[in-house]
What does this fold into?
Amino acid sequence: MKTVTILGATGSVGTSTLDLIERDPQGVEVVALTANCDVERLAAAARRVKAQLAVVADESCHAALRDALAGTGIETAAGDGAVCDAARRGADWTMAAIVGTAGLKPVLAALDGGKAVALANKESLVSAGDVVMEAARRHGATLLPVDSEHNAIFQCLEQANADKIARIILTASGGPFRTRTLEQMRGITREQAVAHPNWSMGAKISVDSATMMNKGLELIEAYHLFPVTPEQLDVIVHRQSVIHSMVEYVDGSVLAQLGAPDMRVPIAHALAWPQRMETPCQRLDLATIGRLDFEAPDYVRFPCLRLAREALAAGGARPAILNAANEVAVAAFLAGRVGFLEIAAIVADTLDRYDPAAPDTLDQVLAIDAEARHLAGERVKDCVA
Ligand code: NAD
Ligand code: MG
It folds into this structure.
């Protein structure tokens, strides 16, 4: 029997994870499901999979959760601390699918148990990569990359030849505005930005894909997960999202992982690892697809990608500042407070205005994150005024 916990169970990745578990529930016991405040979805999922525990991060939603689960015997809890406690219940396999830096402490709590942590929450690695990787090592936990690119790289990685990697090439769909000029991007609405051509995802990562900040965050994520230098990380735009990433070895061999753009494929890989499981996902039909296209990324039209590359190269506190400012800017864009192109401007300004020493500890990362959020928030107010 494998025990499973899903952090961020009501989101896009969380729902896909539940879908796989519910199709093949044998051998799986659900320990805990968590969400921010989506009580209805959380309670329904907890009932279906007979979870031991359901947790909302937002304490004002606890009464509704208790009512929704009354008489089921399913425990309930609320608050950020309760989410971490749920992560610490020691499930054999934990899906970390909370969005944003809110997922950082829960990821660390899950790693405490020294078990398998399937990592979708890229922001925790961007913001606190050294702290997270060190925690995984210290506790002997296994980090299983779920982000489709990183899962592809993980699948192409030959453990015996980890020191023979020449390059890792992340593929990028280019998002919904791949061919737009900067001028055309100026008036982009929230609805246009969240409508991704290939993937169905949560709002924040959809906007990140549209600005290509997502690929920048993924470069930093890859740097922490795999044994490469920043210079060994490349991005190529591949609009069909069929090749999910590639590893080039010193002999010139390039290994790629391919599949339909469905997150259930990498999630299933992480769930069954080191084995494999069946999924209902569409099979790849290359004859129908016909061709695969590639082009170099455009760092002028997609300044967020450039900012992330620079943050990765500079290291220290830069990735944490980039990540925090981006979260604030994207939230402001989603709330209709700033324009699409202002996202990159807010991130750039925050990086310009704040240059603290490199953080060594979680507390230092969190302090930098808080200050960067404050500065980005001030910059948002300037935009609105
Ligand atoms: P989503 O917005 O659909 O879901 C986020 C989940 O986190 C929800 O369950 C929500 O209730 C919970 N949550 C939000 N704020 C919280 C808080 N403050 N405290 C506790 N819980 C909170 O997001 P998603 O698209 O599923 O993405 C989740 C993570 O996975 C992100 O880091 C994203 O970058 C990454 N990811 C997503 C995809 C995808 O296809 N959706 C692909 C690769 C990586
Ligand atoms: Mg990805």
The chain has a mean pLDDT of 97. The chain has 17 helices and eleven strands. Residues 8-14, 35-36, 38, 57, 83, 97-99, 102, 120-123, 147, 199, 201-202, 204-205, 263 surround nicotinamide-adenine-dinucleotide (ligand 1) (CB under 6 Å). The domain at 315-385 is CATH 1.10.1740.10 (Rna Polymerase Sigma Factor; Chain: A).
